Amino acid sequence: MTSFLPPAFIFIAGAALIPFLNGRLRQAYMILLPCLAFLNLLNMPEGNSWVLNFWEYQLTFARVDKLSMVFAYIFVIMSFAGAIFALHEKDKMQLTAAFLYAGSSLGVVFAGDLLTLFIFWEIMAFASVCLVFARDTQAAIKAAFRYIMVHLFGGLLLLIGILMHVAETGSLEFNLIGLDGLASVFILLGFALNAAIPPLSAWLTDAYPESTVIGTVFLSAFTTKTAVYTLARGFAGTEILMWAGITMIIYGIVFAILENDMRRVLSYSIINQVGFMIVGIGIGTTLAINGAASHAFAHILYKALLMMSAGAVLYLTGRSRCTELGGLYKTMHWTLIFCLVGAASISSFPLTGGFTTKSMIASAAGHEHITIIWLLLTLASAGVFLHAGIKFPYFVFFAKDSGLRPSEKDLPVNMLVAMGFLSFMCILIGVYPQVLYQLLPYPVDYVPYTGDHVVSQLQLLMFSALAFFMLLKYLKRTETLTLDTDWFYRRGAKIVVAALAIPVSWTHNKLGYIFLEKIPNFVIWFGKNPLGAIKIGADTLVVSMVGGKEAKKRLEQEKAAYPGVLKQWSISSAVAIAMVLFAAYMMLFFFR
Amino acid sequence: MNKIVEYFERPEVGKAVRYIFYASLVLLLIAELFIEKHPYFHWAAFPTFFAVYGFFACAVIIAVSKLLGKFWLQKGEDYYD
């Protein structure tokens, strides 16, 4: 049919083979899959292909244009880096889930219609939750259940939106939707949940840090960025997204500063960084959309790099709380260097990927003269440096010496290679951004390296660093957790359950008492001497109506004597009665 | 590698790093005078704008976060157990 396969098929079909391969063969295979997918991407001509007829609708599995391609490239590059990072892993469930997850995100990116998108969207949710379950601790399993419940809810919102949209427009095609009518609200909410826009964001910081060393690396890349893609496709220029993005940015910084677990700090940082992209989508100009797409590209690289370095620390020390870490620079040299490259990138230091991409979004706000957004974006750039650029490396690798001396020799060498690869990529798009710019959805007329840009950015960052070290004593880590909107289903739900449970269990107890104790006991009591029981019943009725002390006393005696001595039947008379009953049954049976 | 780490652990080198940091701050402020500016907003062209804004942005972020954490958001680690 065509000269290429939809990349999602390569990964999803490829994932199915992983459980059957072992040792070196599996390692080679895991490297081969992303390479194949990459070659395949190079062969994909623009336009729609792999179109399937489904009733009166058309399902498009390969809608190839600039916007889908830039996300596809970074997803495949990320899968490659992730596969290297995971080479030593023997848990096949994790590896299979990781490839299924990456494949389904590619499926979403290339989906030309809403139904295909929805199907891959749901596969993504199930594949990603496996990566959380894989940690197999009590906390991880609980977090995974919460994660999948939230995502099923989000999937339902999306499905409702899609069905309403199809009913209204008669078309399944996925193009610019825009905020217009109830259907688009539901679709937007479904996308927003995966993009982790507060208050629909707590699933991310709840579950990601509970996943495995490898799982978190994959998780950090795909779910939120597919949502960024769908929002850029369906809701570019929707103004409310600008404010949603600003909320994410501020919220991410505040919570990351309060958080103690290093991987949770980085997870809040994801929300903060995705916020920048969402602002870009909300502004919606070509520069802003370019900024959002290129920032997604760069962010996947450096966030995966940071998650890998945090993963390496967790792998060697088994700890992830900042309060229990520190002083690791003494032995974890390479991890530290790679981590610093990631930290510099996320803070947009010149010569790193963050600088050449994120600055586009602020510039877009500047071009449109949206003062408050520009001011907040600039404030947030300082805040990013604060929480991710300095705080994370400082408390993990420096600060007070925890006494831990993990040896990097115990770290699988492939983990270091993966970090090295991503560091190289971060710097590559920092010093030679044209590689990335030529992939962007719109032609790029943007020069990142002007004296003005470089000096003002460096001033902003270095004086933020000054503020960090001057206020260090207020930033000391505390052994606390931070309340987030998951409170509503972790604590709030308990209150709701209690409120519902009390009347329900009261009714249940009452009914149980009546049907399981009262009535059976009465039947037993009645069966002991039916005639006597009826007599007691009749006497009670009479006494209650007529009264009289004597009668009452006699009734008491009667009750005390119950069931009394019953008339003993001889066997022959009992048999005779039974025979009569049988005969009666037979008559009934024949003549009814 | 270990040699480099040991070198940086020396107190006099630590001090030197700190002075280099301060010097770079001053250098950045001076450098601003020699570059051509094309700001999006005229007030952003004011000298030291980014330095002052960055510093105070961080101070405000830290203060607001700490207050929120102390009076509302931060709980003991066994809160949900």
UniProtKB/TrEMBL annotation, chain A:
UniProt name for this protein: Na(+)/H(+) antiporter subunit D
Lineage of source species: Bacteria, Bacillati, Bacillota, Clostridia, Eubacteriales
Gene Ontology cellular-component terms listed: plasma membrane
GO biological process: ATP synthesis coupled electron transport
Subcellular localization, as worded in the UniProt entry: Cell membrane; Membrane
Organism: Desulforamulus aquiferis
Boundaries of every NADH:quinone oxidoreductase/Mrp antiporter transmembrane domain copy: 111-378
Membrane topology summary: Multi-pass membrane protein
InterPro entries membership: ComplexI-like_HydComp (IPR052175), NADH_UbQ_OxRdtase (IPR003918), ND/Mrp_TM (IPR001750)
Sample GO molecular function, one term: NADH dehydrogenase (ubiquinone) activity
Residues that span the membrane, as ranges: 6-22, 29-47, 67-87, 99-124, 144-164, 176-197, 240-258, 270-290, 296-316, 328-349, 369-390, 411-434, 454-475, 487-506, 569-591
One Pfam family cited in the UniProt record for this chain: Proton_antipo_M
Chief subcellular location: membrane
Keyword terms of this UniProt record: Cell membrane, Membrane, Oxidoreductase, Transmembrane, Transmembrane helix
TrEMBL record, chain B:
Phylogenetic classification of the source organism: Bacteria, Bacillati, Bacillota, Clostridia, Eubacteriales
Domain of life: Bacteria
Keywords: Membrane, Transmembrane, Transmembrane helix
Transmembrane segments: 16-35, 41-64
Full protein name: Uncharacterized protein
